[in-house]
């Protein structure tokens, strides 16, 4: 599929939780004139804490982005809190990928969007970084536990289920945090005269209207495997690639079973 623009964030390359194979599959099946990498692309926190982890699939993702830049696509990288070391390289180009603090994006329909990772509006990250690191370790443990739970579910024929996503929707404080985060980002966009804001950071994909401001969160590539794309008319759409992939595989299995039954009855 070809789009005007693709927005990705929170890939967390360098961590076991990164679903690099799905991300690479998405990049191989989608093209755009411009790409915005909206923070936490590389997880330096994890690398500093546990050492360098860089499987071939993670390297393939980087090479895929560099190839797109080489072919003429405009690519902007907006550092997040996990790859904040890149904020020392603002204005620098890496293989055609430009590092910028934030971006001012105008869609084809004329609407202007503030593009920012969003961590600067997270009070925990800005005022209590030690607590953010502690939360990151807890999140890492939850992802590890989630992997084993889903292996068991797979043995029983169950579908993928996200423990941390479920926890976010069950714990009142987490729900309140997400709601407040969305309101703060929308208010910032309004103060800047924008029609909307495109962000990441909280791993909760969404496109919604908040008091006349378009709030757009790209999600992540650890749990939800989502991206936001700009269509030819300037409208923005959320793509859930994990769900799309699962649906294709189920459809393919049904087709194979149908063909097998026809052969048996022939």
In short:
By secondary structure, this protein is an alpha/beta fold. The chain has helices at 20-29, 44-50, 56-70, 123-127, 129-155, 163-170, 172-191, 241-265, and strands at 2-8, 31-37, 74-77, 93-94, 97-99, 103-106, 112-115, 196-199, 206-210, 213-217, 226-230, 236-240.
Commentary on this structure:
- With 266 residues, this protein is of the alpha/beta class.
- Helix content is 44%, strand content 21%.
- The protein is built from eight helices and twelve strands.
- The protein has helices spanning 20-29, 44-50, 56-70, 123-127, 129-155, 163-170, 172-191, 241-265, and strands spanning 2-8, 31-37, 74-77, 93-94, 97-99, 103-106, 112-115, 196-199, 206-210, 213-217, 226-230, 236-240.
- The strands form two sheets. It has a seven-stranded mixed sheet with strand order 4-5-3-2-1-11-12. A five-stranded mixed sheet has the order 6-7-8-10-9, with helices on one face.
- A hairpin with a 5-residue loop joins strand 6 (103-106) and strand 7 (112-115).
- Helix 1 packs parallel to helix 3.
- The longest helix is centred in the middle third of the chain and has 27 residues, at 129-155.
- The radius of gyration is 19 Å and the shape is globular.
- Mean pLDDT is 82; it is low at 123-136 and 170-175.
């Amino acid at each position: 599929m070809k789009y005007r623009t693709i927005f990705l964030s929170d890939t967390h390359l360098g961590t076991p939780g990164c679903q690099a194979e799905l991300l690479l599959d998405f990049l191989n099946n989608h093209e755009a004139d411009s790409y915005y990498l909206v923070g936490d692309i590389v997880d330096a926190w994890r690398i500093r804490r546990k050492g360098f982890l860089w499987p071939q699939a993670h390297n393939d993702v980087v090479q895929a982005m560099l190839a797109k830049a080489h072919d003429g696509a405009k690519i902007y990288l907006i550092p997040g809190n996990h790859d904040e070391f890149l904020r020392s390289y603002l204005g620098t180009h890496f293989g055609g990928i430009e590092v910028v603090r934030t971006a001012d994006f105008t869609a084809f329909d004329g609407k202007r969007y503030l593009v920012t990772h969003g961590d600067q509006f997270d009070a925990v990250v800005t005022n209590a970084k030690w607590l953010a690191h502690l939360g990151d370790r807890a999140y890492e443990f939850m992802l590890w536990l989630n992997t084993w739970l889903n292996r068991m579910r797979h043995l029983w024929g169950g579908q993928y289920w996200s423990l941390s996503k479920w926890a976010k929707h069950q714990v009142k404080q987490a729900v309140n945090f997400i709601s407040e985060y969305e309101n703060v980002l929308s208010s910032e966009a309004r103060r800047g005269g924008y029609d909307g804001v495109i962000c990441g950071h909280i791993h909760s994909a969404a496109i919604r209207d908040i008091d006349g401001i378009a709030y757009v969160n790209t999600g992540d590539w650890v749990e939800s495997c989502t991206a936001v794309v700009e269509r030819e008319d300037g409208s923005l759409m959320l793509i859930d690639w994990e769900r799309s992939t699962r649906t294709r595989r189920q459809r393919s299995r049904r087709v194979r079973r149908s063909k097998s039954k026809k052969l048996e009855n022939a």
